[in-house]
Amino acid sequence: MTRAHFADPQPAIGERLRARLEAKLAERGIDPTAPLPDTPEPIPALEAAQERIPVDYRDAVVEHPDVAAWVRTITEAAVEPNAGGLNPHFGTAGRRRIAHGPSLLLWGDTGAGKTHQAYGAIRALTAAGCGVSWHATTAADLYADMRPRAGVDPEHMLRRIVRVPLLLLDDLGAAKGSEWTEEITFRLVNWRCQNRLPTIFTTNLPPVRDRSVPPQQPVLRDKIGDRVLSRLSGMCTPVHFTGPDRRFLRR
Ligand SMILES: Nc1ncnc2c1ncn2[C@@H]1O[C@H](COP(=O)(O)OP(=O)(O)OP(=O)(O)O)[C@@H](O)[C@H]1O
Ligand SMILES: [Mg+2]
Fold first, then answer.
1. Second label for 34, Cα 20 to 30 Å away, from 76, 127, 179, 195?
2. Which residues form the AAA+ ATPase domain (predicted)?
């Protein structure tokens, strides 16, 4: 064994190179000895999503275990943009995109936190690095947007919403129903069910009547019909929300 093995380790970079690097950093106003900031880097996709989320739900985080499990399932099923393609674009892998997967039916008491958890899930998927193209609407707004008016092609609008990779359809069954609203709901749910497109539905109504439902209380099946309910039960994990109205608790 020679003495060289016990010599001081060589500096990782030479003194002249170090001086040049420090000069460059100083030119840019960077102090290499300053402690690193402990605030996390903003996630651009999440920042963009925040703009579109109603103010009340911008800090929403997933708390319900069934919603958290769903977010994990969707994240794990997200695919590389060119996965399975015959012509992979080398070097441009990009972010994974939400593909196919199960849906959620968040149902229960007014103000129990269904919409909050729905936006929490959208935020979580965005923060997980999934390329999330999403749309959120209430059923009532969807029907209002679909009313024929000048300069708007409702068919085109419906086709776009129906095909979006991740959809939140809030307050299903709350709007006054008609044959026309039933048809729109059917077309939307049918397409998303057949194509296994992840959708979060929320509703105040119990899905079906059982002994726990008072006779005068309507259920979702009464509002949307058997055929839509059948598809929802095939595609969704139902998650029941109970508890006091949090809007009253906030006062
Ligand atoms: N986990 C939570 N942490 C903090 N605030 C919450 C939470 N869940 C709900 N909230 C707040 O409570 C209020 C009611 O929640 P939310 O709108 O999600 O209820 P909801 O179940 O969708 O009600 P509705 O049936 O009337 O649509 C909102 O202001 C929301 O931001
Ligand atoms: Mg709600």
1. 127
2. 100-234
